Amino acid sequence: MAKSKNHTNHNQSRKNHRNGIKRALPMYLHNSKRGSWLPALINARRVRKNNQKAAVKARRERLAAHNAKQN
């Protein structure tokens, strides 16, 4: 009696590519904040907002310094 086939990868690549191989979503899109401690969530929201403001301010300062150096 002949040995039975143990493994084949036939057609798997085609099947995977029919709808496209997609990148996994970043973890921050998966994490649910439901049930978390509310004061911590509110504080984190404020921190994100102020960090963004600081980043915008720093970028404006860098651009102003760069433009002053060029002129």
From TrEMBL:
One GO molecular-function entry: structural constituent of ribosome
UniProtKB keywords: Ribonucleoprotein, Ribosomal protein
Keyword Ribonucleoprotein on entry: yes
Chain intervals for the UniProt region annotation (Disordered): 1-21
GO cellular component: cytosolic large ribosomal subunit
GO process annotations (BP): cytoplasmic translation
Leader peptide range in chain numbering: none
Family stated for the protein in its record: Belongs to the eukaryotic ribosomal protein eL29 family.
Name of protein: 60S ribosomal protein L29
Gene source species: Trypanosoma cruzi (strain CL Brener)
